[in-house]
Design brief:
This protein is of the alpha/beta class and 507 residues long. 57% of the residues lie in helices and 11% in strands. An eight-stranded mixed β-sheet has the order 3-2-1-4-7-6-8-5. Strand 6 and strand 7 form a beta hairpin. The longest helix has 21 residues. The protein is globular, with a radius of gyration of 27 Å.
Length: 507
């Protein structure tokens, strides 16, 4: 395709697709490193990202260029130098990495044509991380690891040249619909420390959400502080920079589910947390991190003692309610795992006294009431847990999954007591909110079987099987019940076999 046609397409649709195509061709050996650098530089320039064009052009090895490529190289370098200054504010993405070859490509793919500049500080990679980074038009710098996360973060800020800084980790992904919202924010907003929604996604578990400051102006004295769980907010507050929330800008963080990895990082983090606490012994978020880390390492007594030091501190209660409430919640969950329902209730109520909107506290109180046989009280707790989602906190909360599970328990209680009309209303509303929750479709199907509305039941069970075709026991058993009621035992048996993993015969 002609270069001018490519530039017009990039102007209209963005450079992301073109850049991905070039990297695929490079990986397949269809183009050389030099050809990739020259073509990618043209794409970045067409997307009005001259600093990125300069960064990718710098990866071309001049001594290996043929005469034609050398001419193109000189022309591109001249175009970059002559590119008119930007009239809008600019933003640099900063990252710190070490041995992130598995994660880094997806992170950079999610932001490739968004940021004016990307600065990555490598703290000692021994894998392909630096090689991968250079393919994405980044400025790669190196800083030896010194047991302090703030040092490389601040080094990346020092090397940045834009008006704003946005930071990410290698296992973060900027959600596509959030990219333009983020760009509009830094292009139009006055200087501020902007918190976005961080979705902590761990394979096999529902995601947790919290707000975290990720965007801030590049300003003298604005620095990350603390060796671990580093924060920009402390210096932002001291400089009088206002704080804002932008929950529709979402960054997905790919966490680790492997218990061994979790413990390894806890062992690494513990001495860093203790060093920071030696300097700031009453820091609320550090105390919470210490208690959580002690719990991961299996030191139950130390963890509970640290949680209690938080909830017994009136200053923390007054100035950092998110940490205060989270300490109550975490203590309650520890006691619940030990079957100490009395202490669990005490701490759930302690959390609700300060923050009545904490959905997980209402939910677990409902579970406890149900275990005690008090179903009316349990239903009331579940209703409170399932109501509208509260604002995000500075601590991670799994509001969506908790509210969904509360709805499931509400529906089961209503079905148990044959309150079919109420259960149907609850389930239909829940399906609108959670259209991917296949078990809700199965529950609605079961309701219609119980009320002998078999045609409607079939529709909802089949919806459930479409969403989750394998191992969907409730839907398969529901369909088996329908065929038994219709007297078709052969078809009923086919669905029962499917519960055990056998394929369904095609009729």
């Amino acid at each position: 395709m002609h270069a001018h046609a490519i530039s017009r397409l990039i102007e209209r649709y963005g450079a992301g697709g073109r850049l991905r195509s070039l990297r695929k061709r490079l990986d397949a050996g269809c183009i050389t490193d030099a050809q990739h650098a020259l073509s990618a530089a043209n794409a970045y320039l067409a997307a009005h990202l001259p600093a990125r064009a300069a960064a990718i052009l710098s990866t071309a090895k001049i001594d290996r260029l043929c005469t034609e490529e050398l001419c193109r190289f000189d022309l591109m370098r001249k175009r970059i130098r002559m590119y008119p200054p930007r009239r809008r504010p600019t933003c640099t993405l900063t990252m710190i990495v070490k041995n992130e070859e598995a994660n880094l490509p997806a992170a950079l793919e999610s932001v490739d044509d968004i940021f004016d500049e990307i600065v990555i500080c490598d703290t000692g990679s021994t894998d392909r991380t630096p090689e991968i980074a250079r393919r994405y038009a980044v400025r790669l710098i190196h800083e030896p690891w010194c047991d302090n996360f703030s040092v490389p973060r601040n080094r990346a800020i020092d090397e940045s040249t834009s008006d704003w800084i946005f930071w990410m980790d290698a296992d973060d992904r900027l959600e596509p619909e959030s990219a333009q919202r983020l760009r509009r924010l830094w292009e139009t907003a006055p200087p501020q420390a902007a918190a976005v929604c961080l979705v902590n996604s761990i394979e096999g578990r529902p995601p947790f959400e919290l707000i975290q400051v990720r965007l801030f102006p590049r300003r003298e004295g604005l620095r990350f502080q603390r060796r671990i769980h580093e924060q920009i907010m402390f210096s932002a507050q001291s400089l009088g920079i206002p704080f804002s929330r932008h929950e529709r800008i979402r960054v997905t963080h790919r966490g680790y589910s492997d218990p061994e990895t979790h413990r390894f990082k806890a062992h690494r983090n513990l001495p860093l947390i203790e060093q920071e606490l030696a300097r700031s012994p009453t820091d609320p978020s550090l105390l919470l991190s210490l208690a959580d880390t002690q719990a991961v390492l299996g030191d139950r007594a130390a963890s509970q003692k640290t949680y209690h030091s938080i909830i017994d501190n009136e200053e923390i209660h007054r100035t950092n309610t998110d940490v205060f409430v989270q300490a109550h919640i975490n203590l309650a969950l520890m006691h619940l795992r030990e079957n100490d329902r009395c202490q669990a209730e005490h701490h759930f109520y302690g959390a609700l006294h300060t923050d009545p909107a904490r959905t997980e506290a209402w939910y677990h109180l409902g579970v406890i009431a149900q275990q005690k046989g008090n179903e009316p009280e349990a239903l009331g707790f579940f209703v409170k847990s399932a109501r509208s989602a509260p604002p995000l906190r500075m601590t991670a909360v799994n509001n969506q999954a908790i509210r969904l599970e509360a709805v499931v328990r509400i529906a089961r209680l209503l079905l148990k007591h044959h309150r079919y009309n109420e259960a149907e209303k609850v389930l239909r509303q829940a399906i609108r909110l959670y259209p991917g929750a296949y078990h809700l479709f199965s529950m609605l199907g079961s309701l219609f079987v119980d009320t002998m509305r078999l045609r409607e039941a079939t529709t909802w069970f089949m919806h459930s099987l479409t969403l989750y075709p394998y191992g969907n026991r409730p839907a398969c058993e529901g369909m088996a019940r329908i065929y038994e009621l219709l007297g078709d035992m052969e078809r009923a048996e086919e669905y029962r076999r499917r519960v055990n993993g056998e394929p369904l015969a095609v009729s």
